[in-house]
UniProtKB/TrEMBL annotation, chain B:
Residues 1-22 form the signal peptide. This is Prolactin receptor. Keywords: Disulfide bond, Glycoprotein, Membrane, Metal-binding, Receptor, Repeat, Signal, Transmembrane, Transmembrane helix, Zinc. GO terms for cellular component: external side of plasma membrane.
Length: 219, 647
């Protein structure tokens, strides 16, 4: 629904029909790709800003990253170009969807935690951004899903891609950790760090997906 | 006992000496990782800065640990990237993985660890500069622009979408210091407009991944823009020059006509000015001078230039036919006389060319050559007649003189224009003839009378002429109307206030139309201007009226009617025409008597007078005989008036 609204906002004068209804403009796959990539890029940018703020104000030490894992570490993601290209379109799409799905709830918690905490100076600015990225994740996931559907329809994608529940890929400890409710600032920082990376992955995977599916000027 | 202390000292020295030397040797200083960079997000390189080596050979080693792994690995390649560097190839590079890198400096004395650095390769991407930068000049509707194109660095794999680069280029003119930046986004071409004609441009481009570092600027590409403004600039230059030229011309015209424009726009306000009024006189304080200055000779305005408009009535003077020649002769003289008279301006100067009677006579003789056939025939007759009459008659001439302003002391002064019509009158041949006649008559009159007496014809009432001639008076009036019939061109101007009604009767004569055919036997009569009355009427009296008139004279006065002014000839001679009223016979005796009297007086004058033809009884006879003869148009010689001395 949100992706629909987002897509309709970008459509211009004609409304967008995700389901191809009559009287509205049906976006092409290229358009969907462009929109999704833009969204992911923007999401990544916001998360980077938040992370840099946290690092500036909060944590001088950089060694904490090594000791704490991101809750999405269970999702196998290609860590270089060859691996990503070797993965194939279907799996790549699946990875994207998993990543996006895995971050929906944690970001909501993060936002709620941010808004609850009144001590910090930059709370207002950060909480708005947290809310933003929280919404973005959901929209992006829906958008990618629709794009995957379209790709399946156009024969680009095999039908092996399935919409998988995100929780199945999250380690229990991390999930429980995040579901504790109360997140200290340390958790905020780790969360942002992890999200920044994952958003970058999403963005990169989407670009690879696009260039392998629709090689054109942008690639 | 001394030996152990000395040994200890030596040992101490030995111990310290190497230590003393060892202060030069120390474990290596702490190295520091300066930077790590990945050009294509597939490999990366780290560089460190070695610390003080401590004097000993120091080796450096780089160790790294990957995220969530305890395994420590050493740098696989120390050489590819140069000195103090570590190069991670593709196999060793993992993206989205945190690297913990440490550099260790080791020498014989120890090793020193640097501070660890955490890096994620994604965030340390600094691509190579774009390659194959090309700049070309292209044209868009006559205006050139630069088309810049480039290619991404060959190592960066943008084709698969692995890395996304955005570009930026900068342009500057040769010789300038400021670059013009243009963000090109993900496109690999760019157009630059607003070029300077004939300029050389430097173009550079660089790139950056969406989250990373800017690359170095590419090598400069030079491009020279051709001169394309000539065609249009020259047209503009021509237009500007032309406009400037027109502007200059307009300015010059305005300057030339500034005066007239000033008069047009801002007409000068006339100030009050009284003619003849001199402020300096006021300052002098002499009222006489002031008022005398106010008295303008030209007021009432009777300018000589307007004299032709003045109608001067000519007293008709009957001239017998034999006198015609004399008249003819006299005309020329009169012309001369008038001309000369016009020059003189003294009051009672009976001088001038006509003053010299001998001269007049000579001129009259010469005037014969002017040639009028009728006159030529009559000339000798006239001369004879004149002589005869001169001898016989007393020249009761009705000397008609036009009013001469110069003659009178004061009154007639205002009537200078009376003479003016005469020149006009002489403009036409008939007028000329009559004017000559008049002139001749006048000359005759001059000859007949002494200069003094003749002068008194006009202005001096009761002068010598009066004494000599008798009290006969004619009203001499100048009217506007009468001359018209005879001399249509003679128009008296309104300025002429004098009105003279010449009531002259032409004894036995009919009115000559133009006075060209005077009665042959008519004697010349001259009317003396007695005075000017209050009504500006010139009162004329016949010159010979007093002589032996007896009873006939009063009647003569009434009978003869010099009421018509023929006109004024060019010589300022008032041409009067006498109308025949009848009673000619009665006048004749008077005339005879007058002429006799006149003859006596005239003889005393110069010989010139002999030529003049007195209006003797021959006139009467001629008048009777020739009723058809037109009235001799007597003329009043204005010139003579000037010359006649006052009495």
């Amino acid at each position: 629904m949100l992706v629909y609204m987002e897509l309709s906002m970008r459509a211009g004068t004609a409304p967008i029909c995700p389901y191809g209804q009559a009287g509205c403009h049906v976006p092409t796959l290229a358009d969907l790709f462009d929109r999704v990539i833009q969204q992911s890029s923007r999401m990544h940018g916001i998360s980077s800003d938040l992370h840099s703020q946290f690092e500036q104000y909060f944590l001088p030490s950089k060694n904490l990253i090594g000791k704490r894992k991101c809750h999405t570490y269970g999702i196998l993601t290609p860590d270089d170009k060859e691996n990503a290209q070797r993965l194939g379109r279907e799996q790549l799409t699946e990875v994207i969807l998993r990543l996006l799905g895995a971050w929906g709830d944690p970001l909501s918690q993060f936002y709620q935690s941010m808004s609850r905490d009144q001590n910090q100076d930059f709370n207002h600015y950060s909480s708005n951004k947290a809310m933003e990225i929280s919404d973005m994740v959901h929209e992006l996931r829906d958008g990618v899903a629709k794009m995957a559907e379209k790709m399946k329809l156009s024969g680009v994608l095999d039908n092996t891609v399935s919409y998988v529940s995100p929780e199945s890929f999250v380690p229990f400890s991390t999930v429980s950790y995040y579901k504790r409710g109360e997140l200290n600032p340390m958790d905020h920082h780790d969360l942002l760090h992890c999200f920044r990376r994952d958003s970058n992955k999403v963005k990169n995977y989407l670009r690879i997906l696009k260039c392998t599916t629709l090689p054109g000027l942008d690639c | 006992m001394k030996k152990p202390s000395e040994a200890v000292l030596l040992l101490l020295l030995l111990f310290f000496t190497p230590h003393a030397k060892g202060t030069r040797f120390s474990p290596p200083g702490k190295p520091a990782l300066t930077r790590c960079r990945s050009p294509e997000k597939e490999t990366f390189t780290c560089w460190w800065e070695p610390g003080p080596d401590g004097g000993l050979t120091t080796t450096y080693a780089l160790y790294y640990r990957k995220e969530n792994s305890e395994a420590v690995y050493e740098c696989p390649d120390y050489h590819t990237a140069g000195e103090n560097s570590c190069f991670f190839n593709k196999n060793d590079t993992s993206i989205w993985v945190n690297y913990n890198i440490t550099v260790v400096a080791t020498n014989t004395l120890g090793s020193t660890f640097s501070d660890p650095v955490d890096i994620d390769v994604v965030y340390i991407v600094k691509p190579n500069p774009p390659e194959k930068l090309t700049v070309t000049v292209m044209e868009d509707k006559g205006w050139p622009f630069l088309r810049v194109s480039w290619e991404p660095p060959h190592k960066a794999d943008t084709r698969s979408g692995w890395i996304t680069l955005i570009y930026e280029l900068r342009v500057k003119l040769e010789g300038e210091d400021d670059w013009e930046m243009h963000l090109a986004g993900q496109q690999k071409t760019f157009n630059i407009f607003s070029l300077r004609s004939g300029g050389t441009y430097h173009v550079q481009v660089r790139c950056k991944p969406d989250h990373g570092f800017w690359s170095e600027w590419s090598s400069t590409s030079y491009i020279k823009v051709p001169d394309y403004f000539h065609r249009e600039k020259s047209a503009w230059i021509l237009i500007m020059v032309f406009t400037a030229f027109i502007f200059l011309i307009l300015t010059w015209l305005l300057h030339m006509n500034s005066h007239s424009l000033k008069h047009c726009i801002l007409p000068p306000v006339p100030g009050p000015k009284i003619r003849g009024f001199d402020e300096k006189l006021l300052k002098n304080g002499k009222s006489e001078d002031i008022f005398s200055a106010l008295v303008v000779s030209g007021f009432p305005p009777t300018m000589s230039s307007n004299c032709e408009d003045l109608l001067v009535e000519y007293l008709e003077v009957y001239v017998p036919d034999e006198h015609e020649l004399m008249l003819e002769e006299g005309k020329d003289l009169h012309d001369h006389c008038l001309k000369s008279e016009g020059s003189t301006s003294d009051n009672d100067s009976g001088r001038g060319s006509c003053d010299s009677h001998t001269l007049l006579m000579d001129k009259c003789g010469e005037a014969k050559e002017q040639g009028r056939q009728t006159e030529q025939e009559e000339r000798p007759v006239e001369t004879q007649r004149h002589q005869k009459e001169w001898n016989e008659d007393t020249l009761p001439y009705a000397h008609e003189d036009t009013v001469s302003p110069d003659m009178s002391s004061g009154r007639v002064k205002t009537w200078p224009s009376v003479f003016c019509p005469l020149p006009q009158y002489s403009s036409s041949p008939p007028n000329h003839t009559s004017s000559l006649e008049i002139a001749k008559q006048h000359c005759l009159s001059d000859s007949l009378f002494p200069p003094g007496s003749t002068s008194s014809y006009l202005t001096h009432p009761g002068h010598s002429t009066k004494e000599t001639l008798g009290p006969s008076r004619w009203e001499f009036s100048l009217s506007n109307k009468q001359p018209r019939s005879l001399h249509p061109q003679m128009q008296t101007r309104q300025q002429l206030q004098a009105r003279s009604d010449i009531n002259l009767s032409n004894v036995g004569c009919e009115q000559a139309p133009v006075g060209l055919l005077p009665p042959t036997a008519r004697p010349t009569e001259y009317v003396e201007v007695q005075r000017v009355n209050e009504e500006d009427m010139v009162l004329l009296k016949p010159v010979a009226s007093g002589r032996g008139c007896g009873d006939g004279c009063p009647r003569l006065r009434q009978a003869e009617d010099y009421s018509k002014v023929k006109g004024v000839n060019s010589d300022h001679t008032l041409l009067l025409q006498r109308e025949v009223m009848g009673e000619e016979a009665e006048r004749c005796p008077c005339q005879d008597q007058e002429t006799n009297g006149e003859t006596d007086s005239c003889i005393t004058s110069s010989t010139v007078t002999t030529t003049q033809k007195p209006p003797a009884c021959n006139y009467t006879a001629a008048a009777v005989q020739d009723k058809m003869a037109p009235t001799v148009s007597g003329y009043v010689d204005t010139a003579s008036i000037f010359t006649l001395p006052t009495y």
